[in-house]
């Protein structure tokens, strides 16, 4: 939503430019070092906790990074992914989010922050900081995170179903989904690089192996040798086995994802779709051999500004899983 202050300066040219931006990208009130006076140790506390977590449970890095994405794409970056179901089914219990893990980690970080600075740091900001730290702790880039988000108090599974692009998405629907959030095609392919860490259940891609067009065939967009390797791990109707999204380096944030996609070994249809658009294909082929570490912080910071609540909007939750 466009802040009220913009309207009071409507004639000002700069304000007109602000009004032309997608409403979902409004980030008025976010700034680097937002807690420098109210909770100066906030970011250090988050990093300290995440260092301990990733040391003993590195497999949580992928799910915790995805949690920030899944939060921001539904009602904006307001921590609504963390709310438990009550009178209605919440986002976290929607089918696209059932594979997320690490909610207890967020609770642990929140408890430490509450002990140090009661009622100051939002759950939405914790998600953004945790995402940055898990990337950094798995050998990826480090960036400054603008903070100042406040927490929302609405979480509905139907919103998750309507806004989260599925792993079966084609390039047209992916571009439309990202565009609706104020993100461009470059952001789409850059942020897809987050699949360099983490795993997926076979159910998210098994149709590509056994029944792609309903005739018992496999997806022709997949490398045949990769299909054979995946079939050894995922039998038909396997709902429990986990497969690395970036085979061989799923716990390391690196260029491996783009290398895999360039070789027609993207695990999801949404990964393979990146080869169906000239712009995204060029990026994939380029980053298969060079780093995307300068681009990723730019795109994830941009994503982290989607639909944020600041100022007097929302609240600072005492517990991330329930509204105050």
UniProtKB/TrEMBL annotation:
Its EC number is 1.11.1.7. Keywords: Oxidoreductase, Peroxidase. It is an enzyme of class 1 (oxidoreductase). This is Class I peroxidase protein. It comes from Dioscorea alata (Purple yam). The lineage of its organism: Eukaryota, Viridiplantae, Streptophyta, Embryophyta, Tracheophyta.
């Amino acid at each position: 939503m466009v802040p009220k202050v913009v309207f009071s300066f409507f004639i000002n040219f700069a304000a007109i430019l602000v009004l032309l931006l997608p409403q979902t990208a409004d980030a008025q009130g976010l700034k680097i070092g937002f807690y420098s006076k109210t909770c100066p140790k906030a970011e250090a506390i988050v990093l300290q906790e995440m260092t301990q977590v990733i040391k003993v449970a590195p497999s949580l890095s992928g799910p915790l990074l995805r949690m920030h994405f899944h939060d921001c794409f539904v009602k904006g970056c307001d921590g609504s992914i963390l709310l438990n179901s009550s009178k209605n089914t919440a986002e976290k219990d929607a089918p696209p989010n059932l594979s997320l893990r690490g909610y207890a980690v967020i609770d642990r970080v929140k408890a430490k922050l509450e002990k140090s600075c009661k009622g100051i740091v939002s759950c939405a900001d914790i998600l953004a900081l945790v995402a940055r730290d898990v990337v950094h702790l798995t050998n990826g880039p480090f960036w400054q995170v603008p903070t100042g988000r406040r927490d929302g108090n609405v979480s509905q599974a139907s919103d998750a179903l309507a806004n989260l692009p599925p792993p079966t998405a084609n390039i047209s629907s992916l571009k439309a989904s990202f565009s609706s959030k104020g993100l461009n095609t470059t952001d789409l392919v850059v942020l897809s690089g987050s699949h360099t860490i983490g795993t997926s259940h076979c159910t998210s891609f098994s149709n590509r192996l056994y029944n792609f067009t309903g005739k018992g065939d496999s997806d022709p967009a997949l490398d045949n040798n990769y299909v054979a390797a995946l079939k050894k791990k995922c039998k038909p109707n396997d709902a429990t086995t986990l497969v690395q999204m970036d085979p061989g380096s799923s716990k390391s944030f690196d260029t491996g994802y783009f290398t895999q996609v360039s070789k027609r070994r993207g695990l999801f249809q949404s990964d393979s779709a990146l080869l169906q658009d000239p712009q995204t294909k060029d990026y994939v082929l380029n980053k298969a051999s060079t780093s995307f570490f300068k681009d990723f912080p730019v795109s994830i910071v941009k994503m982290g500004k989607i639909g944020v609540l600041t100022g007097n909007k929302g609240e600072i939750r005492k517990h991330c899983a329930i509204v105050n």
